[in-house]
């Protein structure tokens, strides 16, 4: 069998805070998951996003330490319009999440912004500047 990408894993220091952030981005995660050490959400198409507390990771990898510096993996969320990028960025930063890049009209044809999740991982928010253009297919990694 050929390997296939099945899950994107996120290590968190505060499960409830992380899940609240990703719920704001539209992921369907039940409220009772906030107190769990491992949580998964299935996305359309079957890809999963999983969250593990730092304690879970240390339980099977005692030498694991929290990475220093910027994250190496970023998630990107497609928004309905350039105005939706601006609005979601304002809502998230208004709720106290750190903005990394304010919304701007990127040279690759998107309205683009980056906000940090509770553990400091960059999360891109984007929408095509011109609906129907190739820029609506992908955003650069945060």
Task: Please identify, by name, the CATH architecture of the largest domain.
Answer: Roll
Largest sheet descriptor: 4 strands, mixed
Q: Look at the helices and sheets and give the structural class.
A: alpha/beta
User: How many domains in all?
Assistant: 2
Strand content: 25-35%
Radius of gyration: 16 Å
Order of helices and strands: EHEEHEHEEE
Overall pLDDT metric: 89
The number of helical runs is: 3
Shape: globular
User: Share of helix among residues?
Assistant: 10-25%
Unreliable runs:
none
What would CATH call the class of the largest domain?
Answer: Alpha Beta
CATH topology of the largest domain: 2,3-Dihydroxybiphenyl 1,2-Dioxygenase, domain 1
**Total strands:** 7
Strand order in the sheet with the most strands: 4-7-6-5
Beginning-to-end CA distance, first to last residue? 31 Å
CATH H-level superfamily title of the largest domain: 2,3-Dihydroxybiphenyl 1,2-Dioxygenase, domain 1
Structure description:
This protein has 142 residues and is of the alpha/beta class. The chain folds into 2 domains: 7-60, 2,3-Dihydroxybiphenyl 1,2-Dioxygenase, domain 1 (Roll), CATH 3.10.180.10; 75-136, Roll (2,3-Dihydroxybiphenyl 1,2-Dioxygenase, domain 1). Helix content is 21%, strand content 30%. The protein contains 3 helices and 7 strands, in the order βαββαβαβββ. A 4-stranded mixed beta sheet has the order 4-7-6-5, with helices on one face. Strands 1-3-2 form a 3-stranded mixed beta sheet. Strand 5 (99-105) and strand 6 form a beta hairpin. The longest helix is centred in the middle third of the chain and has 13 residues, at 82-94. The radius of gyration is 16 Å and the shape is globular.
């Amino acid at each position: 069998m050929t390997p296939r990408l099945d899950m994107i894993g996120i290590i968190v220091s505060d499960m409830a805070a992380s899940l609240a952030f990703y719920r704001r981005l539209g992921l369907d995660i039940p409220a009772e998951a906030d107190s769990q050490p491992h949580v998964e959400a299935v996305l359309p198409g079957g890809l999963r996003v999983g969250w593990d507390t730092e304690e879970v990771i240390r339980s099977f990898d005692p030498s694991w330490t929290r990475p220093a510096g910027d994250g190496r993996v970023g998630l990107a969320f497609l928004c309905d319009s350039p105005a939706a990028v601006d609005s979601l960025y304002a809502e998230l930063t208004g709720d106290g999440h750190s903005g990394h890049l304010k919304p701007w009209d990127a040279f690759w044809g998107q309205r683009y912004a980056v906000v940090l999740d509770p553990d400091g991982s960059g999360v891109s928010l984007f929408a095509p500047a011109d609906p129907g253009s190739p820029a609506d297919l992908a955003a650069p990694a945060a």
